Amino acid sequence: MREYNFDGLVGPTHNYGGLSPGNLASQSHVGEPSHPRDAALQGLEKMRFVSALGVGQAVLPPQPRPSLHALRALGFTGSDEEVITRAAREAEHLLRLTSSASSMWTANAATVAPSTDTADGRVHLTPANLSQMYHRAIEAETTHSVLRAIFSSEKHFAVHAPLPGSGHFADEGAANHTRLATPGHAGVHLLAWGRSAWQDVQGPSRFPARQTLEASQALARLHQLDAKSVLFPQQHPEGIDAGAFHTDVLAVGNERFLMLHELAFVDHAGLLAVLREKLGQDFRAVVATNAELPAKDAVKAYPFNSQVLTLPDGTMAIVAPIESRETPAARQFLERVVAEDTPVKAVHYLDVRQSMNNGGGPACLRQRVWLTDEERGAIKADVFYTPALHDSLAGWVRRHYREVLRPKDLQDPQLARETMTALDELTRILNLGSVYDFQR
C-alpha cells in the first residue's frame, strides 16, 4: 500500500474574502489583492517537489466559482450575467461567499480509510459536508461528483454521500483525521471533534468549533472501522480559540510518528498513553509546549500544517511552509523534531504564501489516499502526477488564470465565463468526464 497526496488545484477565483471566523490568516488578509496564477503555480511546484521526493502525488480539480447554481438557489434569476450583476448589486457578501476558491484545501474534501482497515476490504471515502461555513458547504455536491468519477470502481472503492447537512453532523473532512500505524499493529484512526450536538462538553469561547463528535462517530461506522482501532479525541478549546479551527493546525501524524502542540487535544498526555499501548514501542511522538512554541506562533507559521512524508528509504521528511522557517520558535521546534529520536530526518520549506495568506498550509492543500497497486490501476482518470501532466497543467493555468484579482473583480460576469471555459478544458486534460453542473 502506498500513500498518494491528492493536491487541490487552486481555482481561478482565488481571493481573500475573509469568510472564515476563527481562521486568523483569512481574517488578517481580507480585501487584499490576490494572485490566482501565482497561487496555482505555487501549488503545482509543491506537487513537483513532493513527487521528486519519491512520494505518490495526484491532483483534484477546483470547483466552478462563482457558483451560479448556489446563487440561483438563493433567488437570483436570469442569465448567468444577470445573476452575477444582481447579486453584486443586492447582496455582495453572497457573491463573495459563492466565489470562494476554498476547495483548493482538499484536506477538507473528504475523510478516507484504506482497504487494509475496512471490514469489506475497500477504500472508503466520504466527502465532507462542511456545514459550518456556507462558502464551504456548497462544495460537497461537486466533491462527491469528482470523487465518484475518479474512484469509480465499486469493486475497489466505496464513495459515500456526505453526512446529512444538519449541524448535528458537521464534518470537516481529513483536516480532523489522523491515521497512525506501526509494523505488526492495526492502523489507529484519530477522528477529532470540537463540539458535541448532544453531550454537554466545554467548548471554545472565542471562535466556533466546527466538527461534531457525532459526525466523527458516523464516519467510523460508514467506513466499517474496527471500534478498537478508532479514537475520538476532543480538540482543545484553548487551541480552537487560538486559531486552530481544524486539528491539522496543531497536530500532524504519519504512520508511526505524531507531532503535536499541547493545545491540540484535551488531555494530550492521556491520548499519547493510549496510542503507545495500541501501537507499541515503535510509535514516536514529539510535543511542543506552549512555552516552547506559543500557540499564536504555531497558528501564524503553521509548522503542524506540514506534510510528514515517508520516503522510499523508509525515513520521513517534513514539508513545511516558508513561514515556519521565518518564525524562530517554529523553526527551532522543527529542528528539535529532526534532532531527536524520530523517523524524521529532514525539513524542507516551500513557498505557498498565496494559500497561507488565506489560512492554508501544505497539509491543507492535500488529501491523503492509501492505495494498493491494484486499486491504483483501477483509477482511469489522468490525475496522477507526471512531469508531462505538470507541464500541461502549468500551461493551462497560464492560459486561463488572471495575474491579479481584486475584490471588485468578483463582480465581473466575464470571470465566471473564464472559469467555466478553463474547467471544461481541465476535465478533458484529467479525463474526468462531466463532473460540473454547467457541463450537464
From TrEMBL:
A Pfam family hit: AstB
SUPFAM superfamilies linked to this entry: Pentein (SSF55909)
Residues covered by region (Disordered): 17-37
EC number(s) given by UniProt: 3.5.3.23
UniProt keyword annotations, A-Z: Arginine metabolism, Hydrolase
EC main group: hydrolase
Protein's GO biological process: L-arginine catabolic process to succinate
Molecular function (Gene Ontology), one example: N-succinylarginine dihydrolase activity
InterPro entries: AstB_sf, SuccinylArg_d-Hdrlase_AstB
NCBIfam families: arg_catab_astB, PRK13281.1
Protein name in the entry: N-succinylarginine dihydrolase
